[in-house]
Amino acid sequence: MAEREQDTQCFAWFHTRPKISRLEIRTALSLSINFLPVWLCTFPVTLNAIAIDWGFRLGTSCPTLFRNNPFICDLFLIEIVYNPLMYMYTSKEFKRASYY
């Protein structure tokens, strides 16, 4: 019986579980705001690196990939600037510390 009660506390899709807490909603929002840009900024860079690697393995030269590589790598810079700004915006502790 105790194991069944513990399962309902861990998994939100059980019907017997109470409403989702404010902390859970806030955590999900914070994770989505901070993780999605990381994925969006690194995915094109990863695809470009894979394409360049396959170009070397196949012995072909694709100047478009090399020409676009610096612009695609600048996406890392966008993420580097975005991540701290979003942390400052979404963190209660940071906001509380900045007022004092």
Automatic annotation (TrEMBL):
Regions crossing the membrane: 27-51, 71-90
Keyword field: Membrane, Transmembrane, Transmembrane helix
Protein name: G-protein coupled receptors family 1 profile domain-containing protein
Organism expressing this protein natively: Daphnia pulex (Water flea)
